[in-house]
Specification:
The protein is of the alpha/beta class. It contains seven helices and nine strands, in the order E-E-E-H-E-E-H-E-H-E-H-E-H-E-H-H.
């Protein structure tokens, strides 16, 4: 009953799982396809399952989450930092959950897939939403924050993490 996004990466092609998603009851499937091209996987999907073709399902997932976030009444708290994001998020979910309907990122869902998936779980009854926001390189936090649009933010620490993408502790601080 869920929407399946066929994401691509360096070692996988989500389109290859279209039939399996259909067989397992997907309510709809978003396949990666360039304009004017219909991938062969469309023929493998059950006739009763809607298929949407998009050149970048990952971007579409982000856009869907952005749209959904704009409709949510929940207060959103973004948590970032070189370490301690998950622990801080878990503590906040427990504290806030004792007073209001609260959702938090499952596990460490803190990237361009996890943040949108966290947001789409929330509904009109959600009063607080705690979202982990991570980074490996410049601009990632700004992009994820543009999706989650947090009302408040917490930076747990700034340290020597992800230096391959951020260059230095100063680069980490600038990104956070």
């Amino acid at each position: 009953g869920e929407l399946f996004f066929a994401l691509r990466g360096p070692s996988h092609d989500g389109n290859r799982f279209a039939r399996e998603a259909s067989d397992k009851g997907a309510a709809g499937i978003v396949l990666c396809a360039e304009a004017g091209h219909v991938p062969a996987e469309v023929a493998l999907v059950g006739r009763d399952v809607p298929v949407l073709l998009h050149p970048d399902p990952r971007a579409m997932l982000a856009d869907l989450a952005r749209w959904h976030r704009a409709r949510l009444p929940a207060r959103v708290i973004g948590v970032t930092g070189s370490c301690g994001k998950t622990t801080t998020k878990n503590i906040l979910v427990e504290l806030l959950g004792s007073r209001m309907t609260t959702i938090g990122s499952p596990n460490s869902f803190n990237n361009d897939i996890g943040v949108p998936l966290t947001l789409v779980v929330a509904d009109d009854a959600t009063e607080a939403l705690v979202v982990e926001i991570g980074t490996n390189g410049p601009g990632e936090i700004a992009n994820l924050a543009s999706i989650a649009r947090p009302d408040a933010g917490i930076v747990t620490t700034v340290g020597a993490a992800h230096l391959e993408g951020l260059g230095s502790v100063e680069g980490v601080a600038a990104e956070k």
